[in-house]
Amino acid sequence: MTAGLSGRAEARWAHRRHSAPVVSPRAGRMWCRVLLLTALCASQALGYGYKTYWYTTQVDHFSFANNDVFEMKYLVNDTWWNGNGGPIFFYAGNEGDIELFLENTGFMFDIAPEFSALIVFAEHRYYGQSLPYPNSSLSDPSKAGYLTSEQALADYADLLTYMRATLPGAGDSPVIAFGGSYGGMLAAWFRVKYPHVVQGAIASSAPILQFTDITPCQAFSKVVTQTFAKDSEECPRVIRKSWDAIDRLFETQEGLDWLSSAWRLCKPLNGSELADFRMWLSDMYSNYAMIDYPYPANFLSPLPAFPVKVACSYLHDDHGDDDKSLLTNLYDIINLYFNSTGGVDCIDSSSQGTDSLGDDGWYFQACTEMIMPMCNDGINDMFYPSPWNLTDYTADCKRKYGATSRPLMAPLIYGGINLTASSNIVFANGLLDPWSSGGVMRSLSDTLVSVIIPNGAHHLDLRASDPADPPDVIEARRVERDFIGVWIAQYTKTADNNQFNAAKRHW
Prior knowledge:
By secondary structure, this protein is α/β, with parallel strands linked by helices. It is globular, with a radius of gyration of 24 Å. β6 (175-180), α7 and β7 form a beta-alpha-beta unit. It has helices at 7-11, 34-46, 98-103, 106-115, 141-144, 149-166, 182-193, 219-229, 234-249, 253-262, 274-290, 307-312, 323-339, 359-368, 390-401, 409-414, 471-504; strands at 22-23, 51-58, 69-77, 88-92, 118-122, 175-180, 200-204, 297-298, 302-303, 425-430, 448-453.
């Protein structure tokens, strides 16, 4: 399948000229890494062809003290675009390489032919290759501070405004924003903050309410536990018991050596790593719940269909009080997550297995404006007890990044639950997905609509159609498609009326 813009249109998409120097992420190194080449080949195989472009935009959109600019990467597919006012389907990139999200957002490609849509995926600043300061984006606090959702949304608004102004046939194109997870938050907030740029938004698995004083800190852990318990209550019970067994093994060198060997860890454990080790396991369990898809998938890790069910099939509650037997069973879950293909020689207990997500950038955001309280009690959830302490959390962030945390910033800027002044957003949440705990789970108005997917995992509705899809996700996509049609029709009618009124003034 051929894709991308025609040569004439492509030639007109030259970067704007700026008096300030452009900080290029491509300078002095090959821009297309092996990972991206792999993604490109995979996308062509799946039919998701695209061309890569770079757009020059401001590092700081909100002051006149910093005139630096940088290049933001974006991907374009115009296979079905009619070039005459057809809609722009715009994916608000989140915390990682933009190719990762293109590969896992087939819904946009599935419905693009119906709407004759241009497809655009924009990479979030400070992630992937869209680095304002390639050598010091996060290491220098004075430069890391430009990593915010507000700046990213301004990047997207700048790009879309430029595209509408310069791409032939796009001047009257409505824009529909899409996003999943943090990208879903951005898609919703894009419509909230820039309604003149975005005519509607599909916000999937978007935890815009996972903030202080809005959502209880234990809500996320409870949903993970419920997802693991859906087939067997035994599964979370065994995981809950494993924490004490791990603690006991960490008390002796013999226990540490045994665990390092039995779990085939790349680096031997030491007693000071207990807290990090617990967090590594907790993140893995949460990821399992997030990607509990009804078919084999390779989003965060290559996993079989219904991976939570497969993982829980390894756990048995008949091991008595033998810590090593219990943890030998648990190893099978870990091996499934990190080595389902059998090609891994050892398991890295410092990594969650994907290089496409920008952990360092997200940790910075989670320390500044994206502070989402999380806690466990080990009774109503299956995790090691861990209370939420904002004072300790913000102090750690200050030590690590030299940045002051602002836990109430996002709800203040975007409205939290008080969104009724906005419109044209569909919030979709799967009940298997732990991030649904911070999602909009009831409709707020006729134009702020909640769609619940009982058998849905993390933004399953945004993934490509699959024969194994449950009926509720098929219905969710139908609802989303219908609303997109309504938003486009509303915009087209408004645009026609505006043109008519403008013409009348010259009569």
